[in-house]
Each structure stands twice: as structure tokens, then as C-alpha cells.
Amino acid sequence: MLGGRGAGKTRLGAEWVRAQAQGLSPYAERRARSIALVGETAHDVREVMIEGPAGLLRACPRHERPLWAPSRRRLEWPNGAIGYAFSSEDPEQLRGPQFDVAWCDELAKWKHPEQTFDMLQFGLRLGGRPRQLITTTPRPLDLIRRILADPHTAVTRASTHANARFLAPAFLEAVVERYGGTWLGRQEIDGEIVEERADALWSRAMIEAARVGAAPPLARVVVGLDPPASHRPAAGLCGLVAAGISEAGIVYVLEDASAGPLAPAQWASRAVALYRRHRADAIVAEANMGGDMVEAVLRQVDRTVPVRLVRATRGKYLRAEPVAALYAQGKVKHVGARMAALEDQMCAFGGEGLADGRSPDRLDALVWAVTALTARGLAGPRIRSLADDPHLVPWWLAGRPPPWA
Fold first, then answer.
1. What is the secondary structure of 21-67 as a DSSP string?
2. What is the number of structural domains in the chain?
3. What residues of the chain score a pLDDT lower than 70?
4. pLDDT tens sequence across 221-262
5. Residue 326 parent element (H or E)
6. Any domain includes 54
7. Is 86 in the same domain as 158?
8. Phi and psi of 27, rounded to 5°?
9. What's the pTM?
10. Closest CA relative to residue 119, chosen from 148, 141, 99, 149
11. H or E, element range at 321
12. Do 18 and 98 sit in the same domain of this protein?
């Protein structure tokens, strides 16, 4: 069970253990006889899992409440079921005992997660179907990834908001306002596993340091476009990122509107809509895959949009390095907290690309936009708009001299 802070994980764990001890259907097929209770420390097992306000002693009705013997680290139910308390500080405690049920609380912060979990598995050998429940606010640990990837694992998720009725309104208001949409908020409030690679060009801390509530007046705004090779699902997303630069030379990333898979007419319409929404000065589009076709598709949606075609002559990692350096120097900011998917891609992009092997579409669009804004401006023959075509606009509207001049 992956959940945010205050989502009710401890109460869920206590109720599940109670159901196992009593053999309550549909949560248990038969009464459990030997139950392992494993927490980060002995103090956590006692103060949270057993004696806490959402712990086992509170969850069980008085007539079936177990007797807690702290000196023996044992819970004894009236029907004969016994719970044993263990700490992740000493995995060797789990050598010898055997169980038919286990509850592991806050595994993501265990002192020795791998060793403790392994020792527990060897002890789950009683009954017809040994079972275990893990309740934790997730972190990107290899152990948690392996457990989630196991086909025998059933996953339940809950955010802090799911338990709002039993939380102080001031707490919810404060934490959501401060952490909502950030990587820490996604992990601690929404219960998501937020990945980060050790060799990534960006870190979560770097991005959080770059986050601002709003952008100042911007001198220029562009839309970075990384069109897909086709509209098939395997072609990936269409990368679309809007960004602007202030008079002080600071770049502000305004929106990630990437989506897909999209047909050419669809991504072109989406790019033009993003251009209009942010009153941009140009669309900067990668032309490696489609060449002039990219511009032609955009022109079918709006002939007046200035388009700058750019071609990649270096690998994605080499193109992204200068942009990552600008982040490190504090010269790029993220406006608001609406770009979780883009930021995930940034923190998962290393020397060999994305960890999952997919194309970094969102990141490519970001790199094109930031590069265009921090280069020597957007003037030049590669930017073409309606006013540059004498066959489309009369000379007196385009600001050109008359043909006979």
C-alpha cells in the first residue's frame, strides 16, 4: 500500500492484521497464528504500529483486543494468535521465527531494508498461503521497485487527500500550498515513486531551486516543438514546451503541453494553440525527421505563425548539457508546479538516454526552446512568417517598399 503522509496507512495495516488474526472474510481465508510486525525501529513498532492512535490496540474492539507484553515484544490475542515485534535495525532477529502473516510498516525508511526483508521472506513459511502487507510512503528504492514488479504483488494507492476528513484543515492547506506539484509533494502527499538517476543531468533539488510562482514581463517567448516521426504509439509523444526570457536574461519555462500519439494535423494544432496561448514570437521546430514538411503542416493550421526550423547535428546528451549548465547557474526557472512529466524526464535522462529507453520528447522540446532563447536572438533568414512572403501579404501591410521602388 503506497500512500502519502496521513493517508491512513497505519490504520489500514492495523485493520488488515486484525482481520488476519480473526480470520475475517474476505481479507483472510483462515485465522493467522503467527504474525510478524516489522518497523523501522523498536520504538516505531511500539509507538506507531501497536500503541499508536491508529495502531493495533486501538483498531481492535475491546472484546478481541490483544494483550501487549513489551518485555517479550509479543501481542497475544484471546483466540491464540500471536504477533511478534521486530526492528529493521537488527535483521538477524528474524532468523529462526516462522510466520503465516507479516505487516511491514514504512519499508522505504528501514535501516537495513534489503537484509530485513530477505530474512522475513525465509520466515514466511506457515499455513497454506503466507501473506504480507507493506504500508509505506514510497521512495525510489531498488527493493520497492522489485516488489512492485513482482506479478504476485497487489498494489493499493492513496494520497493524503483521501484521508482529509480525519486531518487538520490547516495541515492540508499548508502542505498542499507549499509542496503541491513539487517532487517532494508528489512523493509525500500523492504517494508516487519519483525516480532520479545518479548520472542524470538534472536533479530534483536543482529543479526545485529553480521553481518560481510567476514569471516577470518577458522580452521574448518561443514554443519548442519536437514532432513525432509518425502518429503510431511507438513513435512517442510530440514534445511541446513554451518558454520565455526576461530582460535580465533569465529563461522561464512556462508550460509543458506535450502529448501523443498525435497525427500531424493534431500536433500542429496543439503547437499553434500553445503559441497563441502564451503570445509567443515563434515556434522553434526540430526538422530532422520531417524537414520542410514540419513547417508545411504548421502553415496549414496558421499561415502567419513564424517558424524556425532547427536541425540536430549533435547527440541529445550533448545538446542538453549546456541547458543543464544554465539551470545550475540559476539562469532557468520553472513557473508553477504543472510540469511533473517533463521534470521526471529531466531527472531520468543520463548519458545513455532515458532509463526506460524511450525518446526524451519533452526534454528535446525544452532544449530547443531554451537554446533558441539564449542564442543570439531569433532574427535571421531561418525565421519565416507571413510578412516575409510577398505573394501572401500586400507590400503596404508588410512594411516593404512598393514593387516599382
1. HHT-TTT-SS--SEEEEEESSHHHIIIIIISSTTSHHHHS-GGGPPE
2. 2
3. 181, 183, 195-198, 230-236, 288-291, 355-357, 376-405
4. 999 999 887 655 545 689 999 999 999 999 999 999 999 888
5. helix 316-328
6. yes
7. yes
8. -85, -20
9. 0.57
10. 99
11. helix 316-328
12. yes
